Amino acid sequence: MTLGAEDRLDITDLLALHGHLVDNDEMDRLDELFTDDIVYEASNLGHGQLRGLAAFRDMARARAGTPGAPVGHHVTNIVLTEAGEGRVHARSKGIGVGVDGECGSVTYEDVIVRGERGWRISRRKITLHFAPAAAPGTEEADS
Questions:
Q1: Cα–Cα dist 125/72, whole Å
Q2: How much is the pTM?
Q3: 69 Cβ partners below 8 Å, 6+ apart?
Q4: What is the spatial distance between Cα 71 and Cα 75, in angstroms, rounded to a whole number?
Q5: 23-77: per-residue pLDDT in tens?
Q6: Mapping DSSP to helix (H, G, I), strand (E, B) and coil, where does residue 93 land?
Q7: How far apart are the first and last CA of the chain?
Q8: Are 38 and 58 in contact (CB under 8 A)?
Q9: For strand 70-82 and strand 48-51, is the pairing parallel, antiparallel, or unpaired?
């Protein structure tokens, strides 16, 4: 499979859609973003591994409005790698902005598949960064 310009644009739009849907509480539209059997690895954020669209939707709704929940999700630095017929690996950075203005940085590692409804994220691992990767004695530097 050769990932053409149109596919790259579609996938980039897909990744950007996450923030718009979550930040606007449009949880009923998450099927535009994820496969029904999404595996969402959020252990680093304290949410464990979620399986299925309903589990992600429930977690996102429960977290909305709680202290520390981001009011804005912003994706950047998208890198796409072909991974076989109808599969793409995406790595991107995310910036979350809290109600108090505090910001956090995450890395999203996604497996994106093309199906009947177009491109969808089938697996996402999100890692919140607590310190620079090269800082000695930090979890990220030691891994």
A1: 19
A2: 0.86
A3: 63, 98, 99
A4: 14
A5: 888 989 999 999 999 999 988 888 789 999 999 888 888 877 677 678 888 999 9
A6: strand
A7: 33
A8: no
A9: unpaired
Q: What is the pLDDT of residue 136?
A: 67
- 61 vs 135: which has the higher pLDDT: 61
Lateral strand order in the sheet of 87-98: 48-51, 34-42, 118-128, 103-115, 87-98, 70-82
Tokens of 10: 């579609």
Which secondary-structure segment (H or E) carries 70? strand 70-82
pLDDT tens digits along 104-130: 899 999 999 999 999 999 999 999 988
Paired with 127 in beta bridges are: 107
Tokens of 122: 């089938």
Cβ neighbours around 53 below 10 Å, total? 19
